[in-house]
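User: I've been trying to design a sequence by hand for this structure and keep getting stuck. Would you show me what you'd pick, starting by listing the structure so we're on the same page?

Assistant: Good idea, let's start from the same input. This is the structure you sent:
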């Protein structure tokens, strides 16, 4: 239609944190990253946060992302509750899908590209391992294990023949094996020619493996375990060499740093307890040289280049944070932020046309103020209580209002509280509840001037503001009015029989407020007279009046559309 202005996505803020190694730095263009947000694949630029490309061919959340060593291709796999899962190969330059691979039925647990980008190997939860030739996009080898393959790494490529030979290692809970992958002249294709198990201690080595690699010289296989160890195997003799106890909650990600002049190897290992360890050594002699703490469990580490010093790394955490760290682990600086749980509410300044800042609330009770010029967090608001070291369990944020003229944020919580924060510092200023439900109660704490819980029984659900009043709705079906100046209780309306879904101000008359409940009733209130003016039952149907100049459009959760 003529005159239509389509919405254009400006930026996507977020990071999927439920899968490991889901934030990958490009091996050639080391300031570019690939990561997932749900089922969307995101191409980002660490130097320019506005430079972002989104690809959405997946139907379910992406669980696996791998970038080829030469950077030409990307492999992604999704998690699906049933049916065929999509395994997609992308072209880095064109940002387009090359092919969808077939061969695996279960969820992909491990995947890796060969050093020359020609082959891709992946293992699923059903114990199947599949090797694809990316020149033909056909399967060239299958292997079935007793246990799922949890980690796979490619070794050196033999270049002595016209058809090079390959080596890769697989790790499962029951064994670690080395596979030789050669060209078979009889079948005229590559096949797994032989498989050799690694020799382990006589007591056995039953571990769940997470994250690993084969060193650049091909001599050692280094993998992390859920027990918090770094395990070292000798690739030439195919034997276990050493186990290094590093961190709690398991080793989630490990990356090769460099080889020292004396032949020792330096690696960075990220643990589930949020620490990154710098480990140096060779064969059976290893030492932990340094460590640094992150905010949340480390889910991915990659080598990057932002300042050009050649010793920089990117670490992504389960808290949604992405850090830039140096190889010596003496410095860390945040690069991007995200909520660690579901975002439940968003608000721009209610009394201004400016849009440089916005406020979001999440299911873990955190309220954050964002600067949209660089997508950074200006402050984080959390409810604290005297005598309690950490945040207080107050429920999910159900609604937020940004009062820019007063530099305040008002948040409604699932516990029933309504809390007022300072928009600059994130300090809690006020917590309100109706005085007729509970006698006003003062609690002095670190940054709390007044704290009064439970504005609504069973939880608050929605907020809106006028020039003079704050209006809230709750699960109890009540609409309550508070003054903006002191947040004292003014009036209450109980015309709904079920939870209040939304309260909002009228676009024409500032003294009118509309409320919509789960009982399919819409009520209009005049705040200047503190009384109800109109009530409408939202039955199924639609009526259009030609003389209507202003319309009230309502879309219900069960699919009904209303115009009043």
């Amino acid at each position: 239609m003529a005159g239509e202005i389509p919405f254009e996505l400006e930026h996507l803020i977020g990071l999927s944190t439920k899968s490991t190694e889901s934030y990958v730095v490009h091996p050639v263009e080391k300031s570019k990253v690939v990561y997932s947000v749900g089922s969307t694949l995101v191409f980002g630029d660490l130097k320019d946060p506005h430079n972002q490309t989104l690809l959405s061919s997946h139907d379910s959340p992406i669980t696996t992302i791998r970038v080829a060593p030469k950077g030409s291709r990307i492999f992604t796999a999704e998690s699906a509750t049933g049916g065929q899962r999509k395994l997609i190969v992308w072209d880095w330059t064109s940002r387009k899908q090359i092919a969808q691979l077939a061969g695996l039925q279960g969820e992909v647990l491990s995947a890796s590209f060969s050093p020359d980008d020609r082959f891709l190997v992946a293992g699923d939860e059903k114990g199947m391992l599949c090797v694809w030739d990316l020149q033909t996009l056909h399967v060239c080898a299958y292997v079935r294990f007793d246990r799922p393959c949890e980690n796979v790494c490619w070794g050196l490529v033999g270049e002595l023949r016209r058809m090079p030979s390959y080596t890769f290692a697989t790790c499962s809970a029951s064994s670690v094996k080395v596979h030789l992958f050669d060209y078979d002249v009889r079948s005229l294709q590559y096949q797994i020619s032989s498989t050799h198990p690694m020799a382990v201690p006589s007591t056995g080595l039953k571990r769940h493996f997470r994250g690993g690699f084969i060193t650049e010289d091909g001599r050692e296989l280094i993998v992390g375990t859920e027990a918090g160890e770094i395990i070292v195997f000798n690739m030439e003799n195919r034997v276990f060499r050493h186990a290094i106890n590093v961190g709690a909650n398991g080793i989630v990600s490990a990356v090769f740093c460099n080889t020292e002049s004396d032949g020792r190897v330096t690696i960075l290992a990220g643990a589930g307890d949020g620490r990154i360890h710098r480990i140096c050594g060779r064969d059976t002699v290893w030492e932990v040289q340094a460590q640094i703490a992150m905010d949340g469990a480390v889910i991915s580490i990659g080598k990057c280049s932002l300042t050009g010093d050649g010793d920089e790394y990117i670490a992504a955490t389960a808290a949604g944070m992405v850090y830039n760290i140096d190889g010596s682990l003496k410095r860390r600086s945040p690069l991007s932020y995200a909520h660690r749980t579901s975002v439940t509410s968003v608000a721009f300044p209610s009394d201004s046309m400016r849009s440089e800042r916005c406020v979001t609330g999440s299911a873990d009770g955190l309220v954050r103020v964002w600067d949209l010029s660089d997508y950074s967090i200006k402050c984080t608001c959390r409810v604290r209580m005297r005598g309690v070291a950490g945040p207080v369990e107050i429920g999910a944020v159900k609604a937020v209002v940004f009062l820019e003229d007063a530099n305040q944020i008002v948040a409604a919580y699932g516990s029933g509280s309504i809390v007022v924060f300072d928009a600059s510092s994130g300090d809690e200023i006020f917590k309100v509840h109706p005085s007729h439900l509970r006698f006003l109660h003062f609690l002095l704490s670190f940054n709390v001037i007044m704290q009064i819980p439970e504005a609504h029984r069973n939880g608050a659900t929605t907020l809106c503001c006028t020039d003079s009043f704050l209006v809230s709705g709750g699960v109890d079906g009540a609409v309550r009015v508070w003054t903006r100046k002191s947040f004292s209780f003014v009036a209450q309306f109980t015309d709904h029989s079920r939870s209040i879904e939304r309260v909002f101000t009228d676009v024409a008359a500032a003294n009118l407020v509309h409320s919509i409940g789960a009982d399919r009733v819409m009520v209009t209130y005049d705040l200047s007279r503190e009384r109800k003016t109109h009530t409408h039952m939202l039955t199924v149907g639609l009526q259009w009046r030609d003389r209507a100049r202003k319309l009230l459009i309502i879309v219900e959760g069960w699919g009904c559309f209303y115009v009043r």
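That's my pick for every position. To get oriented when you compare it with your attempt: The radius of gyration is 29 Å. Residues 1-94 form one domain.
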